[in-house]
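Troubleshooting: if your tokenizer reports a length mismatch, compare your output against this known-good record of 678 residues.
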Amino acid sequence: MSKVLEIDRCDLDIKSNRSNHHTELYGEKRLIVRRGEPFTVILHLKPGSRKFKPGETSFTLVVETGPLPRKESDTQVSFGLRESTLETEWSASATNDPSGNKVSVSISSSPNAPIGLYSLTLDQDGQKTSLGEFILLFNAWCHRDAVYMRNEMKRKEYVLEQHGQIYRGMYTRIKELEWNFGQFDPSILDICLMILDKNPKFIADADKDCSARRNPIYVTRVLSAMINSNDDMGVVVGSWGKVTDGVRPGRWSGSADILRQWGESGPVRYGQCWVFAAVGCTVSRALGIPCRVVTNFESAHDCNANLVIENVYTPKGEKISQDSVWNFHVWVDSWMTRPDLGPEFDGWQASDPTPQEKSDGVFCCGPVPLRAIKEGELTKKYDAPFVFAEINANVIESIRLVTGKTIIIRGSTESIGKCISTKAVGSDERRDITHEYKYPEGSEEERKVYEKAKHQNMLQKQREEPGLHVKIKLAKNMLVGSDFEVSAILTNNYMETRNCSLMFFARAVDYNGKRGDSCGFTSDKMEVPSGEEKHLSLRLEYEHYGSVITSDRLILVTATAIDKEDYYEAKKTIVLDEPDIEIKLVGEAMVNKSVTAMLTMLNPLPETLRDCSFTIEGISLTEGKPITQKIGTVGRKQEAKASIEFIPTRVGSSKLLVNFDSDKLNDIKSFIKVVVKG
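Known-good structure output:
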């Protein structure tokens, strides 16, 4: 009888393993496991072959990953049988089935092993048998893994949750965007691994790159570079202008469609910060790294790394400097240890796949510990000064006269880093995490008293300090398509009358602070007696603003008062209201049965909409792909209507995301929760 086990076939026991490794949602076709935890394969022996005898029968298992597996790189590991598996390294143990026809082999991977696609081979004295392949992921459930999270609710949120919310708009008017991350959609994990294989570091030295994939710091930095396409064949092309040859950034509702398009044909056009961040979150979660999408309102972009935003304008309000303040900016936080910096810097790490400035010669940013940002530790890797400036930079605004003289603007109220937000764990509520990025002033009670005292002190100073004060009052209802008035109010706190010039500008603006064309202007010379105020109204008409606003639907209004050679200013950004989409389901949502979504939206514009369409998308509702129905033209103040069928494929709760699009009104979004029954 042969001394080796004669293997008839190997059962990777996918169903049992996927349950133990929290990988059920990836599907049933392949073995996908998380590192540092044992998984089981079952060897079926040929009839009449030698039986397995614990303590007597021995064999070696070989695992390999990457195109050039090497022992020195830990991309090839050989290990024999033990009485029980180890928690710290690759190891295996085996037990015999009572029938003698099967051997159950328990394999434990190293919690520090490189992630990726592995082959598994049985070696019996040089006779090798391929047992199959498996994918190894980071493991937030394993306390020895660098991405370990102690809290089960957080693991479910930051690794397993497929739906999310991204926050946009203004800190005074935060708007929610529903997003399908879709990390468990078919083919998405393969595409995520492909992203790693397309990165320039892999192309330059595949062995070194694959070995480095043990480290979530390294992987996160690679993703920061590869989610944008600036230096490579990365996933998303950025565009902050008019789109004529691709998909507008605001059209997207999920990451899976973007990733599939990249996998099929390369860089996808187009994205802006929330798209880059959402795709980065999807890929991180797919690979097992806990990740959350974060929005910073009033976010600074410091071009020269001096921690100061220098906004310089002409007397007509045209910007002539490079620094900018974005209404909001979106990036991601990933959870991991930082052995390169010390345990005090473990936890959330900020990284940003939006291409803004180069880091080590490449458009990427992070990961940098939130603790380093909070404490002002700007020497800590990676890119701490840039992220610190995004939430802490000082803003200096000035006007450069035609003579070349620069005058500092007084009364500007811009401040940086407000209402830093992410989705709450286990709910759709917004969670303010500003305190994680900025140091709190003492206890909660002390902060409340301090804020109250500061507010009262500010109001008192406005009443008592000499000077001119400018503020802007907005209308209550500012629906896109309507006409409305805004007012500038100039108050004189000097002891004597002042003769001033007051200019009131309105310009279209992008969320990143880029100013567009003018859509309104008025001015007046006025005599303001001591202690009194004067008003200047500006009527904003759709006839003027409709053709210049972007899909962000933002208008920046600026009031500037000139008193001799002193300039005083106030600014506000108008976020135009959007029409509501009514969504109704006809019938009950049942698995594998057609259900119809009835969609209705009133056209708020005083003109006809052309090329109108509704698009729906939902995880396990639309088979991972958007469904679009074109409806042609919709007259002024008329209703746009559509009915779209879809077939749910999985029992449970999901969300149906809806997008309306047309030639003049884009990216109007809504959603409903859908509970699918069996």
